[in-house]
Structures are given as C-alpha cells and as structure tokens.
C-alpha cells in the first residue's frame, strides 16, 4: 500500500475477502445482518463464538495489508469489520472477527508470523518498539429485568453511584413484560462477577451478564446468544430490535477514531490512554434463530444436556422463566444459579492456556523467591516455553554501577521514607517489567516472563497487572517463610552469595540484611487480592492456590509442590547390556561401545553377562555411597568397600560425592546467631535408635519396564536397605521408534533416507513413523521429572538413552531441543547433585 507517501491520511475501510453471505466491511452490516445465516460454529458442541477485535501493527509496505486481511480470511474466520490507519512508517489495522474463544491465541500467533507484522493483539495495540498503547476496552453489561417502572434508574444508580463505575453508553428496549438494557461501562479494575451479582440483587432484575444476554435462562447463556439474536428469535417483530442493535453498531469511521487516537498517542514509556469513544464490535451478521431452531429440532432440548448436568441442573418440560417458552431448563432468576454460571464463565476464561504469562514473585527478602524463579524457569524452558527471569535487584545494581554513587545500598535505602531509594527501586522495577513485557511481545511462541522482586505492596502489584493488560496473563507466586531456623540459613546464604553484600564483613552484612527485611516488613501486604496466585509456605510444607487453572494447574502447580531445598543426589544409569546383543559374549568393554546404538537390542531380552556384572558393581557402589555419612565413617566405609568388593574389584571411591561436604555448621557469634545450624536433610542418620549402624539407606528406585532395566534395578537394590522397592515406570521406557523400532540410525539412513533427512533437520519434533518424537518424550516424562524433584531421599533411575537425555536436559539446564546430543554412556553412573542456588551439578562415574 502507499500509505508511506501520506502518513496523515484519514481512515478508510478495507474490503475483507468476500464470502457469500458475509459482510465485507462494517458499512455492509446494516440491513443484511439478520437475514444472513451464521455459517461457522454450528457444531454439535456450539462453540462460544464472539466478535473479537484484533489490533495489528504492521509495516507500511505495498501489499502487506491485503496479505494480512487475506490470511485472516483463509483461516476461515468471519471478518465483520476491517479498518486501518497509517501513521508514519506503520499501519494500525483493526479487524473485528468472529472467533471461538479457544482460537484466539492461535490467530494472534498466525498473524504475527507474517513478515512485516510488528505485533498483533486482541483488543489492545502494542508496537514492537516496546511502547504499549492500551485501549481500555469498555465492558458491556447486559441486564434483563421485569418491565416495572424505576428498575432501570435503580440499576444505573447502583452502577454509577454505589459501585463508582462510569457508564459510557446505555440503550434500553422493552418487549412485553421484559426490559433489555445494555450498559457500556468503563473497564476499570473491578471484580465484574461481583458487579453482576450486585446488579442481580436489585429487585425485578432477572439477570446481568457481561457481554451477552441470558434472557431466556441457562439455555441461551450457554449458547452465548446475543441480544438482537435472542430477541429476533422470540419475537415476531425483529425490526425494532434491529434498530437497537444498529444503535450499538457504530459507523465504520468510529473504529478508525480509535486507531487515530491510539496511533497519535505520545510515545512515552508505559503510557496508556483510553479513547474517549467506545466502539463495541459490530453485531454478528447473523441471527441465532436458525441455530436455535436447529438445536431444538435435533435434540428436543435446546442446549447441551451434558453441560447443564455438569452444573447439577435437571431438565424440565417448560419453564416460566423462559421468555420464549418451549423446552428450557429452569432459568436464571435464582442467584445461586447465576453465581454458578458466573463462576463457570470466569473459570472458562482462566482455564485457557495463555500463550504469554507473567509470573510475579512476591515475598520478603531471603524467602527463596529467586531460588523458586530459577527452578521455574528451568522447568518451563524444559517444557519448551521461552522463559526468562527479570530480577529488579539486578537492574538496581546496574543503575548504581553506571552512576557516580559508590558502595552498596544499605538498609536505609529500602525504607519507604527514603524518597531517593523508593524512586530508584521503582525505576528499576519499571525497567525490569518493561523489558519483560517487551520480551513477551517479541516472542513468537509460548513465553513466560518471571518478575523477580519483593513486589510487596498491593499498589505495586496492581501496577504490574495494569501494565500486563492486553499482553499477558498474570500469576503471583508468594513465598512465605516464618521458620526461624530456615530463615537463619537463608540469611546466611544470602549474605554469602548476593552481590549486595560482597566485600562486607559477614556479621555486618547479616545485620544490614535484617534491617532491610524489617524495612520491607513495615510495608508488606500479603497477596490477598482477587487474582491468580500460589502461596508457598515454609518450603512447600503448605500451599494455597487461588484461581489457578489451565497450564498453571496442570503443570506449574504440581511442579511447585515438588520443590524443596534438600541436597539429595540423583543417579541415572542406562539399563545394562541385553543378552542378545552383538557383544554380549565379550569379556571386556571396548571404549567405543560406550555409545553403542541400543536399538537393535531386543526389548524382551534380559541382561547379558556384562550387563549383569555392571548391575552388581552398581549395587556395591550405591551401598557404599549411601552408607557413608561423614568423615568419621570414612575409614569404616573403605574397609567395607574392600570387604564387599573383594580384591581387585573395579570400584571407584564414591566417598564425599553423594553427601559432599556442605556448610553444615554455622557459628557466627554473640548476636543471637550462635546456635549451631544443622542441615539435617543434607546428612543422614548413621545409627539407628538402638545404636546399631544402619548399613545402607532407603532410596527411591525407578526403572523402565523392560526386562534388562528391571533386572539392573533389582540387582542394584539388593545391597541397599531392604525397604527399598523397585518401582516400574513405563514412562521411562525407550523412545518409541514405531515401525523403525529395531533399526539403528545407520540402518534407518540406508533404508529410509527421506525420513532420516527430515529427522536430521528436526530431530526434536520429527516423529518416528507410528512412534514418538523427542518432544513427545518430554510430555511423557513430565510426571517422572516431578516425581524425581520431590524426592528427599537419594534417587536412582534405571532407564534408556533417550529418556535419560531428556531428563538430563532439565538438570543440566541444556536446551531440550538438543537433548539428543547429550552423551549418556552405557555401564557408567551419572550423579546429579543440587546446588544451593537451585541448579544442579553432574558427575560421571566409572564403576
Ligand atoms: N520455599 C522456600 N522457603 C524457604 N526458603 C527457601 C525456599 N526456597 C528456597 N529457599 C532458600 O532461601 C534462600 C534465599 O533464597 P533467595 O532465592 O535468594 O531469596 P529471595 O530471592 O527471596 O531473596 C536460599 O538459600 C534457598 O535455599
Ligand atoms: O522492587 P522491590 O519490590 O523493592 O524488589 C526489588 C528488591 O528486592 C531485593 C530484595 O533484597 O531483591 P534481590 O534479593 O533479588 O536482590 C533487592 O535487591 C531489590 O532491589
């Protein structure tokens, strides 16, 4: 397009791809809208279709606008309005589309992939320059009431006066004994579910919903029937309704007004503005009369019975609540049902996986926020999301380094009364959050930004939610710890590791950190707002989840539950060599066989002689490693090793590896810290209560179900504590290579070069014919990973090369897409031990 030549031209309408029966621009919507049948979304499931506004910022180049519009059209979406405005080298395009809720993220992603498109978002403008323009999208409240004088006044007064919500536009229609009212209200930070409930409490009000009428009760609400659709369905006189609808559907030029206003906003960082005119999406160019007719005639019931049943509602022949008569369920008058629906609606909205998510850490200093953030990031990256931490402290320190100021920010700097300190901290938070949101906006795939700061006041958290609006969902994770002993350890860990205390005397650093914490305590407000949050108490000994659905509930929450700071080792071994292997008869182990492709081994075979010997060495190694607890036992342990292994046995000395020396005793002097801090979980009981030494210890032992793995595990556990059992876990079975299962990769290359080439190009996502990809393996192994993370005792996993590679990618923090490159040798032991900061170290043992 030629907008570059005329950056200031006025708005204009574009033609959407023409499809029979569909309006091509808002101006076409007028008289035809009620006659056109709804072409899409007529599945038995009746997907929740609504008009959404897609705001696209794109480069002003010839053909791009048409390309974007055509791409949306080819997605099979009904475009009901399409307007654009050029500003400088950018074009701001507003497309109103009919869309099912679960499609929205995919559409945004699809549009953002078009070269030249800077950003696409639903209902808000943002540009790739990091500036965020926000249209505070007004909300539509639809109220149905008995047609009694004075009700409307009461509702309006409740909304504006009692609840303090600005009414921007209001239209009312009455039909017989019913009145239908639409309020477009300013979308401020409200609990809208409660607002609707409050409106429903007004005498004679039958229902109040956000954005849809539910005049006929549950049935229509489930189908999300719009006002004009509903009325045209239940009255003979559609004309007057049509005029009401037309009142709501503004002229096409109004959409451009938004663009104009939005595009000409000053480009200040974080600036947002609300347009003075609200332009609701034009009404659907279709009537639901046909939908209703079809649904009724096909089932005899108007709505999905399963859905109603799930709400505990029973069908009845007819209902006096039903405006249109016919077979409806008992309707919407009772508050309890309205409430159920509200909650269900809200839940439905939150259950979708947001493709962009901000996780906001909350908590006093030294509670484990950064630790938790690092863990989460590792996990999310492993699950193939883009995840990044934005630590406000780092931004603060960077600013200090770049200014004249010297020295560390001491406790006084963190006092609320310290204006300079407060300003600097807010600036650091600004920059951190702005970078975070920019990172999310730029990301083409699922992305999570973790905002790591104390975020200790409601005001701060409200600001974050506000900034993220239109860009990402927000979930808070509050880390709470009031266990004095744990706190003491945390303080020490903090002063020893945080750059804030570098070069300071430890005692002085501790007292400064304590004073800093007190400063934060004075203003700290626990998360109690009506937002999505998870609270972790005292190292996950208790957790609280509020409004956690979708991915957060399915994945992040179980993962968070598994986290702890214990230092137990985790061992990985590949199952011993199977008996039918090419080399099973060999007596020695040539080094080049370490990475032998295991595919040709029969899945049903048991251990070969060499495999058997490896398992026995493993048993002895573990016995020794788990038995030795501290230096006092070392001598005993060594003689025990000799005794067990016999002369000349090939056992490397595992002493000090599994329970390597940790700072387990702290004695810092006379300021209340002089107690001896014993890291109990880092050491293990050596003697039983009766004073006898316990040889061996309980450990978690997980094995794949293949015979060679199970046998390895059975032998490995034979010398450790009798209460250890081998848990067979099919999730640890090898990558399923489908019909290529028994072939080595070399053989596959020869036999199926096409597949091999594709696999080489995309080894992570390319699926073996009839089998799995590495990506599938990540999904399969997620529960196993969580199981391993939550163990407080040492853990041994006997599995196969592919699974171990995928699990190691997590522990090593390696890109999971490159897991197949991790070397996992046969007949060796891999030990993973946690570090205090939340990551892991790896060692390999020749045993
Ligand atoms: N859930 C938790 N509860 C208590 N302490 C924890 C938790 N998670 C980690 N820690 C410990 O807290 C200490 C301080 O952690 P850090 O993440 O630096 O704190 P923060 O970021 O809150 O200042 C670390 O030694 C870590 O082991
Ligand atoms: O912006 P607020 O919420 O104060 O949080 C950031 C502050 O939190 C602290 C608290 O100690 O974080 P961190 O421990 O991660 O370094 C400070 O460094 C940082 O300035």
How much of the sequence is in beta strands? Answer: 15-25%
CATH class of the domain at 353-562: Alpha Beta
Poorly predicted runs are 1-48, 126-136, 214-338, 628-696
- The 3D shape can be described as globular
Any idea of the CATH topology of the domain at 353-562?
A: Rossmann fold
The quaternary organization reads as single chain
Cα separation of the termini: 69 Å
CATH architecture descriptor name of the domain at 353-562: 3-Layer(aba) Sandwich
Counting helices, strands and paired strands, the structural category is alpha/beta
Write out the strand line-up for the largest beta sheet, numbering strands in chain order. 13-14-12-15-16-17
Taking all residues together, what is the mean pLDDT? 69
Question: CATH superfamily of the domain at 353-562, please?
Answer: P-loop containing nucleotide triphosphate hydrolases
Task: Report helical residue fraction.
Answer: 25-40%
Total number of beta strands: 23
Structure annotation, total helices: 25
Hetero ligands: adenosine-5'-diphosphate, 2,6-di-O-phosphono-beta-D-fructofuranose
Using only CA atoms, what is the Rg? Answer: 32 Å
Largest sheet: 6 strands, mixed
Region (Disordered): 1-34, 264-285, 397-421
Protein name: 6-phosphofructo-2-kinase/fructose-2,6-bisphosphatase 2
Domain ACT: 53-127
Pfam families: 6PF2K, His_Phos_1
